[in-house]
Specification:
- The chain is built from 3 helices and no strands.
- It is an all-alpha fold.
- The chain has a domain of 47 residues.
- 3% of the residues are buried.
């Protein structure tokens, strides 16, 4: 082993911590919008047809949303229109 190889290993830094909080942690909730209560977010595994996912991703990008936020917006709108959820001032998805 060369001296430069050993020195290189000593200078390696520890890996960065994960950017996202662990699933189920309280930090997973979206930031508090002004005048609104903090809402916890539920994680859901959703299997989609690849064509449907691509269409949703394009639509979300057109509206400057993440795919996840766009799916939540669509579901909230559908549930509200079906009368299963009372309308609120929170018709916009979290950012």
């Amino acid at each position: 082993m060369t001296a430069s190889g050993a020195a290189g290993r000593q200078n390696r830094r520890a890996p960065d911590p994960p950017l996202r909080p662990a699933a189920g942690s309280h930090a997973e909730a979206s930031p508090d919008p002004p005048g609104r209560r903090r809402r916890e977010r539920k994680s859901v595994l959703l299997r989609l047809d690849p064509e449907v996912h691509e269409a949703l991703a394009r639509w979300a990008a057109d509206d400057l949303r993440s795919t996840n936020a766009h799916i939540e917006w669509l579901l909230r709108r559908a549930v509200t229109e079906a009368g299963r959820l009372r309308p609120s001032s929170a018709d916009e998805p979290p950012t």
